[in-house]
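Bench notes, afternoon.
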Amino acid sequence: AGKKPCRTAAMRRACPRVRATPRRPRRPSRSQKVLIAALVLLALPVLGLAGITFASIALVFNAVAKGYDFFTYYFTLFLTPTIFLSGVFFPRDQLPGALRVISDWLPLTAAVELIRPLFLGHWPLLGLQHLAILAAYSVAGFWIALALTRKRFRS
């Protein structure tokens, strides 16, 4: 079958562009697939460290909690601002200067800044700084939770 004629003026304007469009999207090469798979696999330990970090922080709240209602403070005072300031939903570039500086040191910001580029096939900028922030929060949270839990059980 040959080329079908473009009958209307709008179709005549669109036909060359449609014919020039490739039929299939370009598929990634084998080396690109391997690179993307390796970067995604690198994200798994970062996700594990982020999970340990937030579990450690939650254990601090658990050790201090007087009752069940106290756990709403963890979500209201810590998790909700962290989620909104960390760049999960919108770019952190839009934040005012003071909030931007605060958000630079939040654990979820470090996790997002590490994981998002890996899933997009890029190496994260300032990767060691973000890993250090996550590790510091997880170690500090664990030791504070351990000390508070021991104190609570002794009294």
